[in-house]
Every structure is written in structure tokens, then in C-alpha cells.
Amino acid sequence: MPPIRDKFTIHSKAVVCQDVELKGDITIGSGTIVHPKATIFAIAGPIIIGSGCIIEESAILVNRRKEVMRIGDDNLFEIGCRIESPSVGNSNTISTRARVHHTVRISSYCVVGAGVLLVPTEDQVLEDYTVVYGPAAEQRTWSGRGKVQEADLRRKHAEYLREMLPKFNRLRRGDGT
Amino acid sequence: MEPPIYYSKAEFIETDTGNKVSRRATIAGPQNIILGGKTIISSGAIIRGDLRRTGPGHAVVISLGRYCLVGEGCVMSLSVTLSDRPPYKTYRGNFNYYPMKIGDHVHIGANSVVEAAQIGNHVEIGKNCVIGKFTIIKDCARIADNTIIPPNTVVPALSLFSGSPGGFCRFVEDLPESTQEMVEAQTKQYYTRFQPLDR
To answer: What keywords were assigned to this record (chain A) (predicted)?
Structure first.
């Protein structure tokens, strides 16, 4: 295997803390926030993260496949979660300590509950509005009620962090600047 | 008396009030964190004091009482990540993080994530737990290992909780009334056992 070549493209409006482990070809979109101690590993293919995502501390994003791992906009990856899915849509919430295997593709508006292990052996697509919960990774569909409020909270959360994080943490810039 | 737990003197910083903080712990915004004294913060712990309420002046984000322990049993291990961060919500249209208050004699196990609003005195939280946002844990409660407590839960005094949402029952049993004395003795003993090793 060839050595991993590092190439970080970080949008000027993204907030990426210094204490973040990045490896491989990574693109981070505008307004995305990466908390300290998060890890983003592009082992085989590149990782492209959209705008307005929040990646909290000790969250791990890994791409083991050759293809591009695409993460949409306004996703929230909470503390200590581990995501290897080849594609993630928009406005998803991956809760604390959840684990999603590389066989799962996540659409939009999905919620993976706290501590859920989502590791199917065959390929699976989480449809829009799917909620995964409990120790057996049961699934239900969310009616979509309170979606606007949820999106509003996410937007304000990101806005707050964009203002507060640079006051207490050193930031990291991309290669271009 | 159990044997002492040794730590390397170079790794920990000891303050005047007897707090022992690992240099390998990640502490953001330390000016917003209050440690009560004789509190131990182990290596690999993450404490977020930077997520504070907006507004002028100082704001206490996280306050820990006396004889607390963050990240028990992970003194030797580096892979441990434990997180202590205040909870957030919007109130009257404004987004804010809210302060977190932890009482005296509280032990938090390795790899646990705590986003509670309030934790009382003499509380024991096991390993690998997730304490949801705005949870209130009353005095002398105990949370078993690997427990996931959903957001906005209130854990009553002298109760043992275990399991995860969607799983089996969460309240398990009442704890004996002597819990307070037992936990107090235990936490004090842990602090005395936690000794530096010169080398």
C-alpha cells in the first residue's frame, strides 16, 4: 500500500481546532466545526465534508474504501462516535458513542441513537427520517415533526461555536493559506 | 487498607488545595472551571470549560466539588477518552450552553461521557456510561457500568440505574441509607491511596 499523502483543504470559514488528528486527503466545507481531539482518517479514498457540520471531541470519521466518502451539510457527529459509511446525507445526527460500519449508507434526516452499534454484514441504506435506537439497533421512521426547530437549533449551535471556539482554542488552517 | 495506586510525579500537577490534574488531560477554557480541592483528573480526560454562556464577564462552566475523580482506572491507559462538557439548548430563541455543577465525593469511571446539568454529592458513575444532556442526578445515586441515560432524566437519590433506552428497565433498586458514609470513606481512601512515585 502506498503511504498516505496528506492534503487538507479547509474552507476559510470553517473552524478546525489545532488539536485534531487529520490524515489523508480531506476537504472541509464552509462553516463546519471540528472540536479538539476529533479524528478524521482518509486511509484509502478522500473524505469530503460539506458545510455547517459539527464534529465533536473524540469523534472518528474513517474512509477505508477507495471511493470518495461524501458527508453532506448540517450533520452533527457527537462525542466519541465512529463513522465509516461511504456516504452521509444532510441534517443527520449521530449520537454519543454510536458506531456505524462501512456497509451502511446514511441518507438525510437520520438519527443514530447513543451507544448504537450499526454493523450489518451486507450493504444497507438508511432511508430518510430513519431513527436507530437501543442495544439491538431497532429502526423506526420519524414523522418529520419538529424538523424546522431541529434545523434551527443546529444552525444556532454551529453559529455559537463559530464565535466561541476561536476564543479558547488555536485553529488550524488548510494548505492553501 | 488497600495498596496505594502510584502515578508518575512528572505527569500530574498538584495544586495548593490538593487537586491532581494530569498533563495528558485536555482542559479547554481552564479559567471557567472550578475544582473544589483534592480532586483527581486522570490522563485522557477531556473537560470543556470553553463552552460557556454568552455574556460579559466570567462564567463558571463546570464546577467540581471535593474528593472527585474524573476517569478512574485510566491512569495507566492512554487510549481512554472521557468527556465532561456542559449541555446546550435554545431558550427564548437564543442558543446557549448551560453550566454544569458536580457535588463532592463524585467518582466518574473511565470512558464515560457526562453532559449532565447537575450531579449531587456522593454519586458514583461507572465506566463507559453516557449521561445525556440536562440530566439531574441526585445525592448518593449510583449509575452502573455501560449505562446510557437519555437526556432530561432525573435520577432520584439513593437509586441504582443501569441499562440503556430501548433496552430493559432502567431503575434497578434502592441503595442502603449507609451509602453516603460508604462513598465518602471510599473517595477519601482513594485520594490517600493515589500516591506519587518519584522517578
So the answer is: Cytoplasm, Cytoskeleton
